[in-house]
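W.,

You were right to be curious about this one. When I first looked at the sequence I had no strong expectations either way, so I just let the prediction run and decided to look at it fresh. Below is the sequence, 344 residues in total, followed by the output.
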Amino acid sequence: MKGTLILGRFFGIKVQIHWTFLFLIGWVIYLELRKGSDWPSILLTVFFVLVIFLCVILHEFGHALTARKFGIKTKQITLLPIGGVASLEKMPEDPRQELWVAIAGPAVNLVIAFILSWFVDMEKYFANPEVLEQITIQNFTFYLLMVNLTLVLFNIIPAFPMDGGRVLRALLSFKMERTKATETAARLGQLIAVIFFFLGFMYNPFLILIGVFVFFGAQGENMMVHHISLLKGYKVSDAMMTHITAVSPHQTLKEVVDIMLAGTERHFVVAEGGEVKGIIYQNDLLQAIKEKGNEGRIEEAMNSEVISLSISDKLSTAYTLLLAKRNLYIPVLTHGVLTGAIDL
């Protein structure tokens, strides 16, 4: 994802933060300054926000590591101002597996809250609410406990594609076809999103942002599941392009540009002796021409991290892969030999 800062890789999963997260930190500082807080208090509040997002990361790892148990990889976890997103390759279609993956995130926050409760005198804070007017070192743990409980309650709202919506979809899938279950969960999610939207105008503008995210997220998930349903029964061989030009890694950039200008192809499989070596995308080709000149070699500009499919693979599998990265161009193999290619 563009505009992200990579924080590291944990359990083999890349964790990154989107640049818009800085707006959240700026907004927190602005609110504290308006309240007249001094800089030690402001820095403590910012630190508190960062610790909250550490809990959010752990929440997303709950989803990711549970999905891994079912053979589903996670490309990355991204922190946004409205929370975290674990980019799973796909959600399990088995309702039992989806149920486990969906509840794993809130379960992590529940465990964190339970651990923190051992260090917090709850009665003290509820009996003296004046000590909660501002975050301090003394009430830091209490606030963190309450935030984790809030994350649990918020995430189990049945607003698809939030965790609660996925739990609802999984439960409905025990009784009805997955496409219908998704549609039902998505419509309920969109209704709740509209409620968030209007509440945001009356109480907190942050709810407007959440409402928009939920509304379009539900719509996108519903559309994707419907598309996958339509593709069931078809294989990659039914949709792949067979008249493709495979280029050699030793060809010059200009030779491939000439091929591109003479036809309609924009991306090319780079192969040698029938074995796929990489993919050269149009944008990479043109950029390489600028940097290396006409006589540069394809092997210097190609993307060697190639995902390939077999002609017998399900078309729905190809669709899921292509949807995850829209400019993907996937070579199709027959017994390891290049046969064609497929794109979105």
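Here's what jumped out at me. The chain has two domains: 4-231, 236-343. And, maybe more interesting for your project: Strands lie at 4-10, 13-18, 74-80, 83-88, 246-247, 268-272, 275-280, 309-310, 329-334, 337-343.

Coffee later to discuss?

I.
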